[in-house]
Amino acid sequence: MTRLLAATSVTALVLALPACGTSAEGAGSSGTTLRVAAAASLTAPFEEIADAYEAEHEDVSVEYQFAGSSDLASQIDNGARLDVFASADEATMDQVADAVTGDPTIFATNVLTVITEPGNPRKITGLTDLPRPDLDVVVCAEPVPCGAATKELTEQQGVTLDPASEESKVTDVLTKVRTGEADAGVVYVTDAAGAGDEVGTVETKGADEVVSRYPIAALADASSPAEAQEFIDFVTGPKGQQILRDKGFGAP
């Protein structure tokens, strides 16, 4: 079983993708390598989904590119050799509409939450505390789905942030809070849940009103179109959906 971990920049992704090969070319004579580009927030469930999928498809191995959805969309626009794209929002999938085949399928939903250092030493009570001048707050950059959702949520709640940094993927926001580089951040509830007691969470007013819908689609120039559709069917089927629910994602 093969995994290709997230590239940290657009340039790194460009370099990494051509080197891996696809389909039988990538897996040699033993089978097919399926290339899946997936939003960083999907890392935990998709790794588990790959294990379950590969157990039922012994001739297929799944390679992932986990990164911010906007970075992945840029790679697809630039001709990256991929079979499947799973984005953290519909707007980003729309950006590559000409590169996908068929209609994207919504397979999961997610919402945001405020996270803090463990024990919440800064006594943050919610979203409205984040503009406090004594806080270092990190968020996703606006082009990234979690950043667009953060902007929508803060505008809806009348909160203006002055973040210490804007990250290219939600997992980077989580890391900065978890390691103490920031006092607080805004991430998906699934990321907060996955971090366990390494971060604290606080009630986030209005979060349930800003729902991120995750679409998945096969790429029109996929090297392994049949396997791409089988993978999508697995993600949207009972086993894939149960794994996503277990990781805290909402139903489509």
TrEMBL record:
<dbReference type="InterPro" id="IPR050682">
    <property type="entry name" value="ModA/WtpA"/>
</dbReference>
<comment type="similarity">
    <text>Belongs to the bacterial solute-binding protein ModA family.</text>
</comment>
<dbReference type="InterPro" id="IPR005950">
    <property type="entry name" value="ModA"/>
</dbReference>
<feature type="signal peptide">
    <location>
        <begin position="1"/>
        <end position="21"/>
    </location>
</feature>
<dbReference type="Pfam" id="PF13531">
    <property type="entry name" value="SBP_bac_11"/>
</dbReference>
<protein>
    <submittedName>
        <fullName>Molybdate ABC transporter substrate-binding protein</fullName>
    </submittedName>
</protein>
<keyword id="KW-0479">Metal-binding</keyword>
<keyword id="KW-0732">Signal</keyword>
